[in-house]
Amino acid sequence: MPTNIENICCIGAGYVGGPTCAIIASKDLDISVTVVDLSQPRIDEWNSSRLPIYEPGLQDIVEAARDGSGLNPVTLHFSTDVKGAIHRADLIFISVITPTKTVGVGAGQAADIKYVEAAAREIAEVATSDKIVVEKSTVPCGTAEILRDIFDAVGDPQVRFEVLSNPEFLAEGTAIADLLSPDRVLVGSEGTPSALEAASALADVYSSWVPRERIITLNIWSSELAKLSANCMLAQRISSINSLSAICEATGADIQEVSHSVGLDKRIGPNFLKASIGFGGSCFKKDVLKLVYMAETLHLPEVAAYWKAVVDIKNGKRTALAGTTVDGKRIAILGLAYKKNTGDTRESPAIDFMGSMLAEKATLAIYDPKVSYNKIIHELGELFGHEAVARYVKPCENAYSACRGASTVVIMTEWDEFKTDRLTLPPALDLGDLTASRLTTPTVKRADSVSSGIPSSQSEDRSSCDDDGLLSPGTPPTNTNSPAPELINQAQALFDSYGPKRLDWARISTLMRRPRLVFDGRNVVDASKLRSLGFLVQSIGKKSEGVLRR
Ligand code: NAD
Ligand code: UGA
């Protein structure tokens, strides 16, 4: 069994395989890491300057390891030569998807591990030297045994295969930080001398940057189940707080005050208590369902029902939001990704919501900073029919074009740019009086008005926005009626302190049709500030007002 790892192969160049291997390649300069995938376009993107996934900090790390930098060698490779990479590797990560089965026994709940099995089969067929095979994918407890059977049945009897479980705990949007400073790294093995040797070799790989005390060696079944359990417990917290947010909406309690107060209890803690329209992403739902299915097959119906409720509560919340009359109206959807700092839309709560809106023939004007026009059209077309999407879905380049003419704005993703935390203009620039026609900046003709898809009327709209249609530092609004210098200076100071961009909600208020509704599915806006701009606001976990109260 290899004890000193010099060559790593990772099967699956996705959200886990790509970032994880980029970190290993940047930390273990003696190891050559090759990430392989069946998808040529995906590998081409990993080899280009436009990576297939967005993850803060990833680009620099990939480029340095992939292209070499300074005295550092090239340690990271992306390829479709799966066989070649397996052949050379001492250690192979399997990092392919493990979605929910859609047909057959357990459809709708059980994990479909056919991709993991296919990868194992390929390894078994190709390997001519001993291999450490590492389950990186999230799998049901017991999968290692299935892999062992494949190696015993298909592999060369002269070749030894050691299967380890090393589940990944990174979250999208914070993948690099999570990988660089993990709470723990689990290395599960079968506990035989050879397995422990393999586990030690894998632990050595991580020890280049992870403190030894955070690298936990444990039995392989515990490792598999610990990963599933972590996701289920996290999902359960969100469903718990979301269930309470429904009570808040009905009673007048405020979910943010409740979660803050509850989270101050050290035994509970403040994380994962943000109420939302429901958790999304490729993992929580499927992983909770994996546990549900395991409990069912183990004849533990109460356990299955308990965990099933975690998924059901998530779904209930979406339905509640989708209750208004929208036929023929334009709805601006701000955010399509399942959370901020990622372009991933898998299981995004926005998708189901949009499905119900499309069924009612609403026009959906969608803006997300990291989800491209093509992705929106393609993914929604696959789900809801290309004809309906061509007719009713309008991907927009910025929030302003999405909101123009809309009667409702729905915030689906908590992108920072949607926040109102900096919407505090001085009294003389009273937001209540603010209209787009009274806001001016030095008159700059927007050269991008056509290419950006912004109608010409908007391109002439003189406001404090940059070419992206977003507020940016150093572009203060000035009031044409009373340009008192001290106020302008005050405004300038405010805008200079802005840092990251924020939407100009005052401007949005001038673009929308009345009554102007904002559904805040993430509690990112300060409802009172928006109300002072003339919006009607409904926030998750807060009592609604006026016409919104049903
Ligand atoms: P992904 O879809 O982004 O990537 C999987 C890749 O594997 C795809 O590019 C696919 O083309 C490739 N692939 C599939 N079969 C292959 C084969 N036989 N040979 C070569 N390539 C193959 O998936 P992901 O989000 O990276 O998730 C992978 C696993 O990691 C899942 O089990 C998931 O539950 C788990 N996980 C995901 C995250 C996350 O944040 N996305 C976090 C922790 C764990
Ligand atoms: C989650 C886990 O956090 C990771 O540890 C795990 O590795 C990963 O799943 C996985 O196995 O795939 P991820 O799904 O990327 O990571 O993102 P999270 O930050 O966990 O958010 C999941 C969903 O919950 C998002 O839709 C998010 O908006 C929502 N959420 C999160 C809330 O609604 N409230 C919160 O307080 C936190």
TrEMBL record:
<feature type="domain" description="UDP-glucose/GDP-mannose dehydrogenase C-terminal">
    <location>
        <begin position="332"/>
        <end position="442"/>
    </location>
</feature>
<feature type="binding site">
    <location>
        <position position="286"/>
    </location>
    <ligand>
        <name>NAD(+)</name>
    </ligand>
</feature>
<comment type="similarity">
    <text>Belongs to the UDP-glucose/GDP-mannose dehydrogenase family.</text>
</comment>
<feature type="binding site">
    <location>
        <position position="227"/>
    </location>
    <ligand>
        <name>substrate</name>
    </ligand>
</feature>
<feature type="binding site">
    <location>
        <position position="172"/>
    </location>
    <ligand>
        <name>NAD(+)</name>
    </ligand>
</feature>
<dbReference type="InterPro" id="IPR008927">
    <property type="entry name" value="6-PGluconate_DH-like_C_sf"/>
</dbReference>
<feature type="binding site">
    <location>
        <begin position="169"/>
        <end position="172"/>
    </location>
    <ligand>
        <name>substrate</name>
    </ligand>
</feature>
<dbReference type="Pfam" id="PF03721">
    <property type="entry name" value="UDPG_MGDP_dh_N"/>
</dbReference>
<feature type="binding site">
    <location>
        <position position="42"/>
    </location>
    <ligand>
        <name>NAD(+)</name>
    </ligand>
</feature>
<feature type="compositionally biased region" description="Polar residues">
    <location>
        <begin position="445"/>
        <end position="458"/>
    </location>
</feature>
<feature type="binding site">
    <location>
        <position position="98"/>
    </location>
    <ligand>
        <name>NAD(+)</name>
    </ligand>
</feature>
<feature type="active site" description="Nucleophile">
    <location>
        <position position="283"/>
    </location>
</feature>
<dbReference type="Pfam" id="PF00984">
    <property type="entry name" value="UDPG_MGDP_dh"/>
</dbReference>
<dbReference type="InterPro" id="IPR028357">
    <property type="entry name" value="UDPglc_DH_bac"/>
</dbReference>
<feature type="binding site">
    <location>
        <position position="138"/>
    </location>
    <ligand>
        <name>NAD(+)</name>
    </ligand>
</feature>
<dbReference type="InterPro" id="IPR014027">
    <property type="entry name" value="UDP-Glc/GDP-Man_DH_C"/>
</dbReference>
<keyword id="KW-0520">NAD</keyword>
<feature type="binding site">
    <location>
        <begin position="272"/>
        <end position="276"/>
    </location>
    <ligand>
        <name>substrate</name>
    </ligand>
</feature>
<comment type="pathway">
    <text>Nucleotide-sugar biosynthesis; UDP-alpha-D-glucuronate biosynthesis; UDP-alpha-D-glucuronate from UDP-alpha-D-glucose: step 1/1.</text>
</comment>
<feature type="binding site">
    <location>
        <position position="280"/>
    </location>
    <ligand>
        <name>substrate</name>
    </ligand>
</feature>
<dbReference type="InterPro" id="IPR014026">
    <property type="entry name" value="UDP-Glc/GDP-Man_DH_dimer"/>
</dbReference>
<feature type="binding site">
    <location>
        <position position="37"/>
    </location>
    <ligand>
        <name>NAD(+)</name>
    </ligand>
</feature>
<feature type="binding site">
    <location>
        <position position="346"/>
    </location>
    <ligand>
        <name>NAD(+)</name>
    </ligand>
</feature>
<dbReference type="Pfam" id="PF03720">
    <property type="entry name" value="UDPG_MGDP_dh_C"/>
</dbReference>
<dbReference type="GO" id="GO:0051287">
    <property type="term" value="F:NAD binding"/>
</dbReference>
<protein>
    <recommendedName>
        <fullName>UDP-glucose 6-dehydrogenase</fullName>
        <ecNumber>1.1.1.22</ecNumber>
    </recommendedName>
</protein>
<dbReference type="GO" id="GO:0005634">
    <property type="term" value="C:nucleus"/>
</dbReference>
<feature type="region of interest" description="Disordered">
    <location>
        <begin position="445"/>
        <end position="485"/>
    </location>
</feature>
<dbReference type="InterPro" id="IPR001732">
    <property type="entry name" value="UDP-Glc/GDP-Man_DH_N"/>
</dbReference>
<dbReference type="GO" id="GO:0003979">
    <property type="term" value="F:UDP-glucose 6-dehydrogenase activity"/>
</dbReference>
<feature type="binding site">
    <location>
        <position position="339"/>
    </location>
    <ligand>
        <name>substrate</name>
    </ligand>
</feature>
<dbReference type="InterPro" id="IPR028356">
    <property type="entry name" value="UDPglc_DH_euk"/>
</dbReference>
<feature type="compositionally biased region" description="Low complexity">
    <location>
        <begin position="470"/>
        <end position="483"/>
    </location>
</feature>
<dbReference type="GO" id="GO:0006024">
    <property type="term" value="P:glycosaminoglycan biosynthetic process"/>
</dbReference>
<dbReference type="InterPro" id="IPR017476">
    <property type="entry name" value="UDP-Glc/GDP-Man"/>
</dbReference>
<dbReference type="InterPro" id="IPR036291">
    <property type="entry name" value="NAD(P)-bd_dom_sf"/>
</dbReference>
<keyword id="KW-0560">Oxidoreductase</keyword>
<dbReference type="GO" id="GO:0000271">
    <property type="term" value="P:polysaccharide biosynthetic process"/>
</dbReference>
<dbReference type="InterPro" id="IPR036220">
    <property type="entry name" value="UDP-Glc/GDP-Man_DH_C_sf"/>
</dbReference>
